[in-house]
Design a protein that fits this description.
Blueprint lengths: L12 H9 L27 E11 L8 E11 L6 E4 L4 E7 L2 E2 L2 E5 L3 E5 L9 E10 L6 E3 L5 E3 L20 E10 L3 E4 L2 E2 L3 E3 L2 E12 L6 E4 L2 E6 L5 E6 L7 H18 L7 E6 L19 E3 L4 H9 L8 E2 L6 H17 L4 H13 L3 H4 L15 H17 L1 H14 L4 E2 L1 H12 L4 H7 L8 H4 L11
Parallel strand pairs: 1-11, 18-19, 19-20, 21-22
Antiparallel strand pairs: 1-2, 2-8, 3-7, 4-5, 4-8, 6-7, 9-10, 10-16, 11-15, 12-16, 13-15, 14-15, 17-18
Helix pairs in contact: 2-3, 3-4, 4-7, 7-8, 8-9
């Protein structure tokens, strides 16, 4: 386990303050109000407090797929004096709410996913308080997926957490996370982070997991199935736990490659940021909301159908870009997807590919006369486009062009400084632009205006910088 740096930042409100200094602030909201006014999801999250830790207890029987029992305690610090506050929770019947052990004066549902709580006693600004919510019912299918094997898993982006536990559901409020999941004997529960003790009583088994680094809510997960679990470790001793559902292939060659890939990413991005690694490989989900999903669930990505090296590179690159360094709001999706996609290109280069002639030039030539290819901005792409495909294809091209603009030394130094200085916190794309300019000593405003903020093909000097210039007329 790597000791966190002294500058470890759970930059919830701090990140928003930094964003304000850069002129990209979220709209201020009154204490205790619902929604942090994210430009794309204004009802997500809640003001007035900063979550430190989630302690989530669930009980689930796959034979009763439409029911989950929950008992979650949210520990937070009040950033304002609170006579009322809200949590995000979609569906369920809420049986009780206590604040610091005392029954709430009232609790009620509001909108699609708000649980509004009035504590028995005012919560003073600066104090730490604990909210315990007991609930039961059908988990929402947006984030809770029933599997064809009979199991289930919780995963989704931008929303999933509200489907199975109450939370402050916005990436700007990261917190540590403990999971206690009780299932019938013969079934297993896999979560984020490191496993704790497993106990069995009365035909039911309880699994415990703990993620000790701050985590955005959409990165939390639980998967329940009859898993085959393999264990190994990285070169630095970090434990690797890989779980296969009963209806997916046990892929030991790709599993071994997973460790090699993580070692390669360490060489490019800096030390692996979490206390554990691995994979959760599940089968297909069922029902009207069935979908295949690969997601960078923190410390242990989730894959559907099997392990593949392309997905393993992408989702593990997210452990640095998106998980450890999370974005300040949903305009910043490029900070996750552009970098994870370019990691796939770096891996191909590691295996011998020439990215200039085998990746960059052919895509530019193919899309030179296709305005739609360039029409989406990489920063602030627009509501409904927070995970637009442009962040993957145009985004990886942008990063290769940046690399050729500033040179390899400055480019990879920028990536390592980014993952170090913002570790376990939040940041914005404009902050990345500023860092790249600082490290390289170059004026990059024109470059980023063309690539990240523009909606047309970049001018030639930005499209074919540095060594790419020789490819301009091919």
């Amino acid at each position: 386990m790597r000791t966190p740096p002294t500058h470890l930042r759970r930059t919830t409100r701090a990140a928003l303050a930094a964003a304000t200094a850069l002129g990209i602030a979220l709209t201020a909201v009154p204490a205790g109000a619902t929604g942090v006014k994210d430009p794309y999801f204004p009802d997500d999250g809640n003001s007035g407090y900063d979550v430190a830790h989630y302690d989530v207890h669930i009980g689930y029987d796959p034979a009763r797929a439409d029911h989950l029992d929950g008992d979650t305690t949210v520990t937070a610090r009040a950033t304002h004096t609170l006579d009322r506050f809200a949590l995000d929770l979609k569906g369920f019947e809420v049986a009780s709410v206590t604040v610091n052990g005392a029954p709430a004066r009232s609790f009620s549902r509001s909108g699609e996913h708000k649980l509004v709580v009035e504590p028995a006693h005012r919560v003073a600004k600066g104090t730490t308080f604990a909210v315990r919510v007991k609930y039961a019912g059908r988990p929402d299918a947006e984030g809770w997926h029933v599997l064809a094997s009979g199991g289930a898993n919780a995963a989704g982006e931008p929303h999933a957490a509200t489907s199975w536990y109450p939370s402050n559901d916005h990436p700007s409020d990261k917190a540590t996370f403990a999971l206690t999941a009780t299932v019938p004997d013969g079934w297993a529960a896999i979560g984020n982070g490191l496993p704790g003790p497993t106990t069995t009583e009365g035909g039911r088994t309880t699994f415990r997991w703990r993620e000790d680094r701050p985590m955005a809510t959409y990165l939390s997960t639980v998967a329940i199935d009859r898993f085959t679990v393999h264990r190994s470790q990285l070169a630095d001793g970090t434990p690797v736990i890989t779980a296969y559902g009963p209806d997916v292939p046990v892929d030991t060659p790709t599993e071994a490659l997973q460790n090699d890939i993580l070692g390669f990413l360490v060489s490019k991005f800096g030390p692996y940021p979490f206390s554990s690694a691995g994979a959760i490989v599940v089968g297909w989900s069922t029902g009207p909301h069935a979908r295949a999903l690969d997601l960078e669930t923190q410390s242990r990505p989730t894959y559907t159908g099997g392990l593949f090296d392309v997905a393993v590179v992408h989702e593990n690159a997210h452990q640095w870009f998106g998980d450890s360094v999370s974005f300040s709001d949903w305009r910043d999706g490029c900070l996750a997807e552009c970098f994870a996609q370019y990691a796939n290109q770096l891996w191909e280069e590691h295996k011998g590919a020439n990215l200039d002639t085998g990746f960059y030039a052919p895509l530019i030539k193919e899309n030179k006369d296709n305005p739609a290819y360039w029409s989406t901005k990489l920063y602030d792409p627009g509501k409904g486009k927070e995970l637009d495909p442009a962040l993957y294809f145009k985004g990886s091209l942008m990063l290769h062009a940046l690399r050729r603009t500033v040179g390899d030394d400055a480019f990879f130094d920028t990536l390592r400084r980014w993952t170090s200085s913002h570790a376990y916190g939040n940041a914005s794309f404009p902050e990345f632009e500023a860092l790249a300019a600082k490290v390289s000593g170059k004026d990059l405003k024109g470059f980023f205006d063309a690539w990240a903020h523009g909606t047309t093909i970049p001018p030639k000097q930005y499209l074919y910088p540095g060594g790419l210039a020789a490819l301009a007329d091919r």
